[in-house]
Inverse folding.
């Protein structure tokens, strides 16, 4: 386990090095003045410019510059956005939780719907139910998420009027942003309408989360189905059958647990996928998250914001990836020996 | 094997709380909070909280009538000038001296960041105008030191002195008589700020806050603002004019047309700006679509300082190749008139003898040949990203023009940015041509000529054509110095003819301004001039 | 399958022929293949087949609903958009942009990826280990996110989008080729060829490639469905194809503003994307089916 931890740490540092290096070199790759790209200080006065140049060690060689940049990043300074003039780090601290909240909710939906359905399909292998589930999964996997989002709004918000069409919560409620995690903020707030606000926020998250969840859920269906099928073919399942255990006993005591481990292995990858879908869905549902902000920044060519946003977002995805890897290794000792690239 | 009852059961248990919570989530709308609050879905973010420093209509809508008052204002019905913070005024016979008698007991906003100790008085008026007039004033350079509206109308040259007679009397001395001076003071730009607040900020060395955390005497005070998403006002409990009926006014900034309509249909907004799909709104018994005649012009501006449009023949050629009728029907859905001049037909100075340049691709081709354009001309059209009455969909309009011009072999690239970025780049003159427009701030015709095409406005940035013509400039100067309406009309006609010859910009349409609301929302919101006003709105 | 060990003239169908046999036996896959071929034909011949121009506007015919609606017009089968452009023609032209370009993109990525992959499979050591690390990092980032990142760097535009997607897909092909080649090289038939004195390159070309081609094509179908969705998503976000081009995602985005007036401008491009992705996935499904059958036999 120690060796495994060390390996993951090694990978982590390697990646962080790559990501910061990429982020730093972006300021050179983007058109315009490198210092301006790095800091977002558009039309700055000369004195401000000089201070900034000193902070980022512009006179020294490139390696010193990189470390100056690194120290700024780690002290929470990602510059200011060129368009809004707001501090990027604070902006991200405000937006990222909204994305995480939405993604976690969608992830939860995808797993509780996808995995059981996958298991059901496997149990009915090669029967009509299995085929129907597979066909639906194929469509769900192929449907473009932005289109699905529009259809969902049209059906559930406009025609049926069940759920709101966008935003994180009705703007009538005024919740002080403490952590950025809306549900938590509502619960710790001291308003009279706390419970109303909570329900309202809940109603707002269902539709976008469901839209995001569809594609990962269908992948979970396939993963769970394959995992269950493999497990059902193993000799220890045959042995339990020979022992005369009932069907339920076989499935719930032996098969489900063993196939779940196989599914968890892929969860990290799926979470990253889900965050990407969330970015697009945020645009459609007007969700105040980092995806919408980043896409907006790309559109406006706000290079400082792009640079900071990408760094934080990709680090976040990678951290999640490593954490799930770790959880998998804790659950399944066999995986600890596996090497990189041999997935 | 058959379906395990366990699995089914487990699934239903897991989904039960979801379903029940969903149902609860729906009926939380009928709260008192919804009755006391009004949500307005606006089309863009304000760029400042001080109308003095901007020309953007979105900012005016969001700020001017909500946070501030002016000395005088326009009557919403007949556009005459009526008292506001000044309860009366007096004009000397030579038109060079104007005295305002101020209203007493008008209180400024009390907010988290400022608590006023005194009521409104002459010091506030002095501060508000000195900031613009006096280049040595400590607040003059704050937020860039640009006061585009005032620079456009030549305010600094016009006003010799602003003088405090006593605490409730202020006198303006002018260098010469000016027929549009009072109208200019009644516009949304001439707001009164708090001098006491400015002092407090100066002590804290936070001067720039005056334009981002505003204090005024208006019906609403700022609670919070999140750039690009939401702007929240609370009512000003001691508003001098009337008791404000709603407690909370929220601007939900929704750039997408469809997004705004969706929010109106799903009851997430009470009022929306610039609605699309008029039919859909009229079909719905709970919604009302309203319109006002607006004094505006939507135009295609040519950057006359950059090739290819430094050549007037090419400007004329392109103008002949654009089918305005098609634009009126496709973009404005026939709710606009084809523009022949930059002045709307309703203005008394409009030259009715002018005819629009006819749509004629063959003429355009000839002109292009005459200008010596051989192989395919190509240029950028910048399409503004927000909806305005004068141009409800600039992007589609640009596409139409693109298609029109492709017929004469001219290639068009369409460029668009987010609104603030768009304006910044436009000010820098990065465009070759731009689809934009102008909404009048007051009924005087000068409000079209000076801001759009005078040499002065070249510096202030509202002259998007970067066009400066001495003859034209002297004509509109002359027109300002006289009050004789016939003389003025003649001068403005000449000016319109010069525009017709030179075509620094191609006038496209004069349109009405639309708005949609839930019928539960009562009260007049729109007027022909200036921004939306929520002070008298009530909600059933 | 047990075979008689008698020396008979037995013909082993080549992998591709085997594939065809499997394909023919499954109707759903044949439908997918048919749809796929249809799209390819459309992508190539759309300029000839389309009844109207895709960019030219015709204001008098604006916002016509599809022909089956009462207000529709038979010469505009699927209706028109707000500029009076024929939806059917735009969708057909869109096939060559969204579907056709995704096909080209995958081919380019495949060529580069397979080349680097097989090269790296034959080398060992530091280079290889660095590649491992690098692939691990890159493969853990979803393709669309990576494409967005690259477009952010290159700036919006259709060709930048395409390059971004090529770059995103290459590592996947490197990975699959590398592991497949390594796997094959461990097998005994390669050893036999080696003992015959064949060079590595020769073995790769003549013995290994025919046996891993299916895996690569399988990966290509994954890549293509991802590429279609990515091109469309970037187009939808306004980061891909520029305004007049009838790319399906961009069409959907511009239809968004007409959602309430002309809902077909939103439904149709979405359906087109869905159709193309499902067709691609069905073909992929068939390939996986065939590979599995061959393994089992």
């Amino acid at each position: 386990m120690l060796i495994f931890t060390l390996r993951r740490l090694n990978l982590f540092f390697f990646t962080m090095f790559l990501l910061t290096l990429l982020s730093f070199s972006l300021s050179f790759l983007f058109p315009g003045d490198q210092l301006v790209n790095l800091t977002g200080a558009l039309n700055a006065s000369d004195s401000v410019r000089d201070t900034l140049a000193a902070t980022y060690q512009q006179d020294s060689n490139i390696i010193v510059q990189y470390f100056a940049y690194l120290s700024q990043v780690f002290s929470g300074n990602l510059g200011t956005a060129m368009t809004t003039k707001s501090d990027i780090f604070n902006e991200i601290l405000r937006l990222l939780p909204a994305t995480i909240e939405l993604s976690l909710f969608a992830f939860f939906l995808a797993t509780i719907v996808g995995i059981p359905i996958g298991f059901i399909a496997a149990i009915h292998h090669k029967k009509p139910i299995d085929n129907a589930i597979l066909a639906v999964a194929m469509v769900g996997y192929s449907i473009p998420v932005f289109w699905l989002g529009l259809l969902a709004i049209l059906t559930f918000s406009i025609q049926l009027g069940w759920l709101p069409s966008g935003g994180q919560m009705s703007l009538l409620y005024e919740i002080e942003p403490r952590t950025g995690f809306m549900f938590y903020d509502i619960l710790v707030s001291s308003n009279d309408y706390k419970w109303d606000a909570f329900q309202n926020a809940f109603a707002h998250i269902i539709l976008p989360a469901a839209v995001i969840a569809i594609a990962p859920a269908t992948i979970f269906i396939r993963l769970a189905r394959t995992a269950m099928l493999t497990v059902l073919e193993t000799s220890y399942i045959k042995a339990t059958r020979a022992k005369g255990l009932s069907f339920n006993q076989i499935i719930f005591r032996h098969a489900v647990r063993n196939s779940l481990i196989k599914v968890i292995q892929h969860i990290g990858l799926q979470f990253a996928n889900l965050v990407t879908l969330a970015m697009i869905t945020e645009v459609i549902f007007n969700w105040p998250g980092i995806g919408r902000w980043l896409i907006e920044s790309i559109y406006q060519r706000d290079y400082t914001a792009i640079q900071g946003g990408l760094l934080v977002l990709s680090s976040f995805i990678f951290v999640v990836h490593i954490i799930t890897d770790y959880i998998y290794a804790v659950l399944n000792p066999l995986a600890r020996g596996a090497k990189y690239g041999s997935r | 094997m058959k379906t395990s009852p366990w699995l089914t059961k487990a699934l239903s248990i897991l989904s039960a709380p979801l379903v029940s919570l969903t149902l609860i989530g729906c009926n939380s709308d009928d709260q008192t909070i919804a009755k006391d609050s009004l949500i307005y879905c606006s089309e863009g973010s304000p760029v400042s909280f001080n109308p003095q420093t901007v020309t953007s209509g979105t900012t005016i809508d969001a700020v001017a009538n909500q946070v501030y008052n002016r000395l005088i204002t326009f009557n919403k019905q007949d556009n005459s000038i009526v008292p506001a913070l000044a309860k009366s005024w007096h004009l000397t016979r030579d038109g060079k001296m104007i005295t305002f008698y101020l209203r007493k007991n008008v209180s400024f906003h009390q907010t988290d960041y400022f608590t006023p100790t005194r009521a409104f008085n002459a010091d506030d008026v002095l501060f508000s105008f000195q900031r613009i007039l006096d280049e040595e004033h400590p607040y003059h350079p704050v937020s860039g030191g640009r006061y585009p509206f005032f620079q456009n109308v030549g305010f600094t040259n016009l006003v010799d002195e602003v003088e405090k007679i006593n605490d409730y009397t202020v006198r303006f001395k002018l260098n010469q008589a000016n027929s549009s001076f009072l109208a200019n003071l009644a516009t949304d730009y001439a707001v009164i700020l708090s001098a006491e607040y400015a002092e407090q900020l100066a002590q804290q060395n936070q001067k720039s806050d005056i334009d981002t955390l505003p204090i005024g005497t208006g019906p609403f005070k700022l609670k919070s603002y999140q750039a690009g998403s939401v702007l929240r006002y609370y009512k000003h409990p001691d508003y001098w004019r009337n008791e404000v009926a709603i407690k909370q006014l929220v601007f939900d900034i929704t750039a997408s047309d469809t997004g705004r309509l969706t929010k109106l249909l799903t009851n997430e907004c009470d009022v929306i700006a610039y609605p699309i799909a008029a039919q859909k709104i009229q079909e719905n018994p709970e919604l009302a679509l309203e319109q006002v005649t607006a004094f505006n012009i939507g135009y295609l501006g040519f950057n006359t300082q950059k090739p290819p449009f430094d050549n007037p023949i090419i400007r004329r050629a392109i103008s002949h190749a654009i089918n305005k009728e098609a634009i009126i029907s496709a973009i404005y859905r026939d709710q606009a008139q084809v523009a022949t001049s930059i002045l709307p037909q309703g203005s008394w100075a409009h030259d009715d003898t002018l005819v629009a340049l006819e749509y004629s691709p063959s003429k355009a081709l000839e002109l292009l040949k005459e200008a010596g354009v051989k192989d395919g001309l190509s240029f950028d059209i910048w399409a503004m990203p927000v909806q305005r009455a004068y141009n409800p969909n600039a992007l589609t309009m640009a596409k139409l023009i693109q298609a029109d011009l492709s017929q004469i072999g001219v290639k068009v690239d369409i460029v668009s940015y987010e609104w603030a970025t768009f304006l910044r780049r436009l000010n820098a003159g990065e465009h070759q041509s731009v689809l934009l427009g102008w909404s009048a701030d007051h009924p005087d015709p000068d409000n079209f000529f000076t801001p759009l095409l005078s040499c002065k406005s070249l510096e202030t940035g509202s002259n998007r054509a970067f066009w400066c013509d001495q003859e034209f400039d002297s004509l509109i100067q002359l027109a300002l110095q006289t009050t004789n309406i016939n003389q003025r009309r003649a001068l403005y006609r000449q000016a319109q003819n010069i525009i017709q010859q030179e075509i620094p910009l191609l006038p496209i349409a004069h349109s009405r301004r639309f708005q949609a609301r839930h019928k539960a929302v009562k009260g007049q919101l729109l007027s022909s001039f200036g921004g939306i006003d929520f002070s008298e709105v009530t909600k059933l | 399958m047990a075979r008689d060990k008698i020396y008979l003239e037995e013909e082993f169908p080549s992998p591709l022929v085997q594939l065809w046999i499997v394909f023919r036996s499954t109707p759903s896959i044949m439908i997918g293949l048919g749809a796929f071929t249809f799209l390819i034909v459309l992508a190539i011949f759309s300029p000839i087949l389309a009844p109207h121009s895709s960019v030219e506007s015709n204001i008098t015919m604006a916002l016509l609903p599809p022909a089956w609606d009462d207000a529709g017009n038979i010469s505009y089968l699927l209706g028109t958009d707000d500029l009076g452009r024929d939806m059917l023609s735009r969708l057909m032209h869109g096939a060559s942009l969204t579907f056709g370009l995704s096909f080209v993109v995958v081919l380019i990525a495949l060529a580069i990826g397979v080349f680097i992959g097989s090269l790296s499979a034959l080398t060992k050591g530091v280079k290889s280990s660095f590649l491992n690390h690098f692939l691990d990092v890159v493969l853990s980032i979803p393709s669309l996110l990576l494409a967005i990142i690259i477009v952010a760097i290159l700036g919006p535009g259709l060709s930048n989008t395409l390059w971004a997607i090529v770059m995103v897909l290459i590592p996947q092909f490197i990975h699959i080729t590398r592991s497949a080649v390594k796997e094959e090289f461990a097998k005994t038939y390669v050893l036999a060829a080696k003992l015959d004195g064949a060079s590595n390159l020769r073995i790769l070309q003549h013995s290994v490639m025919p046996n891993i081609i299916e895996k690569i094509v399988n990966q290509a179908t994954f890549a293509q469905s991802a590429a279609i969705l990515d091109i469309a998503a970037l187009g939808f976000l306004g980061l891909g194809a520029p305004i007049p081009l009838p790319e399906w995602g961009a069409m959907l985005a511009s239809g968004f503003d007409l959602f309430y007036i002309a809902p077909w401008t939103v439904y149709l491009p979405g359906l087109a994307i869905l159709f193309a992705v499902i067709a691609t996935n069905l073909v992929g499904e068939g390939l996986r089916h065939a590979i599995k059958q061959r393994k089992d036999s």
Remarks:
- Chain A touches chain C through 46 residues (CB under 8 Å).
